[in-house]
Amino acid sequence: MLGWKLFVRALTLITENLLPAIRVSLVPYGLAMAAGLWVALTYPEWVGQQLDPENPPPAGFILGTMASLIIGVFASLWVSVGWHRYALLGEVSDGWVPPLRMDLLLSYFGRTLLAFLMAALAAITVATMLAVLLVPLFQESVAAVPAAGGFFAACLVFYRVGVILPAGAAGKPMRMNDALIATKGQAQTIIVLALLTVGVTFLLRLPILLEDANVVISTLYQFVTGWIGLMLGVGTLTALYGHLVEGRPVE
Description:
Layout: H1 2-15, H2 18-42, H3 59-89, H4 102-138, H5 144-162, H6 164-169, H7 176-182, H8 187-210, H9 215-244
């Protein structure tokens, strides 16, 4: 099954090239981790708590959390572009600081927003249609069907148009229409690939969801699993692009 083969390809890309993966991500992801740990250590009592309008958190926690999120997004873009370029072009930095190409990062950010927007629109459309058609007939027995349908629609659309991300990172930008043509007829492959990626990421995060751990330990664990999820997600898009667009083998 092609979806499974592409997932394995994305996974082995990490395991067989662990040192380059660390070189690409250590400094950017380290910055994000440092920002997150600062918030966790400075305001441990507020981390993970639901916001209460009657008892708002201190301004420092809000500003620190926002800054941490911004740094995290920036680091994710930096790592994503670097990992795409390593996998597709063999680009390796001389030291431990990966090349910082702001033009590629900004372009990647814009393409990511566009892909997520299209995925969200697809999810809302499908979920709404299923709810209108099924809920009046079957009531609460099918309450989960619209959400599931929306999720599958979002995955399908995101991965179909998502090949523009590795293309742009490698300096070979694609049009949206070209991405749709390249991924035509691959719905089953994309759904399998998306389910495997989301499933593995969820399973990695499950322990922290089930057990109330120390705030520092939970923050570190989230960053470790987040790194795996990021590298795997970027790798699956790279494998999909490499096989469907560039004709690279998956084995």
